[in-house]
Amino acid sequence: MAAQPDLEVINNAIGQLTGEITKFSNIPAIANGNAILEAINGLEGRLVAQIHDLEDRLVAQIHGLEDRLVARMRASNIMPLVHAITGEDIQNFPPTIAAIQALNLLEANHILTALNQPSAGLIAAKRSRILIAVGVTTIMQTITL
Fold first, then answer.
1. What DSSP state is assigned to residue 27?
2. Phi, then psi, of 116 in degrees rounded to 5
3. Which of 21, 46, 48, 144 holds its CA 20 to 30 A away from the CA of 119?
4. DSSP per residue, 112-138
5. Cα-based distances in Å from 97 to 25, 53, 57, 87
6. Is residue 108 packed enough to be buried (19+ CB in 10 Å), middle (13-18) or exposed (0-12)?
């Protein structure tokens, strides 16, 4: 009969192996590896926080720049447009975007008629047509309104 495995020897070997495996955590490279992983996780958390802080500051700066740009646009003088038929400057043409946005119904109709543009619709639509005529885009209108 061929040699048979000795289960008691195997059991003792497994017990001895288990005891030795538990000692791996005492090896400096492995123990330090855990500390390194903890440090990396800590750095990751701080880095994420710093990125969020930077993002918040950039968004605030962008909003500040947009606000200043809108304020400048609203206060900037614009050239008066000319009458579509006579070629003369339209009388009492609003000097700023803010002034266009403040036009009343009669003033807006006067300008649209002079530009040979339709004067139908609500005052907001009329002001919008005048703003487009002076080169203010629809995006800029929504920002400045």
1. S
2. 60, 40
3. 144
4. HHHTT----S-HHHHHHHHHHHTT--H
5. 72, 35, 30, 22
6. buried
What is the rounded CA–CA span in Å between residue 143 and residue 41?
A: 42
Assess contact for 114 and 84: CB atoms under 8 A: yes
- Rounded to two decimals, what is the model's pTM? 0.49
Q: Give the whole-angstrom CA distance, residue 74 versus residue 99.
A: 8
